[in-house]
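job 3f2a | input accepted
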Amino acid sequence: VQLQAFGGGLVQPGGSLRLSCAASGIIFSIYAVSWHRQAPGNQRELVAEITRGGTKNYGDAVKGRFIISRDDAESTVDLEMNSLKPEDTGVYYCNVVLRDRIYWGKGTQVTVSS
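job 3f2a | predicted structure (114 res):
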């Protein structure tokens, strides 16, 4: 199983960035997928998740600014991030879950700074 995240980088406050995560080695459509992030010195936290049925859930810090979407035909999950703030800085990880099966990608760095 491989999860490869793309799209991280440096962006100014108020800007936008789009992350993508491509999965292989699993039947992607039956998994719930999510994005988490971890800032230096902080615990990893949930950013957004989307179930196999398409139900979405967001962390309080990103509600109204981030949008998660999935493409089961392409086995990808995207995270559209808008109105970015310095506190959104961190390493972003994608994750897939099916009952007791949990797989993590390696993460991509997002830095929000002027």
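job 3f2a | The radius of gyration is 13 Å.
job 3f2a | closed
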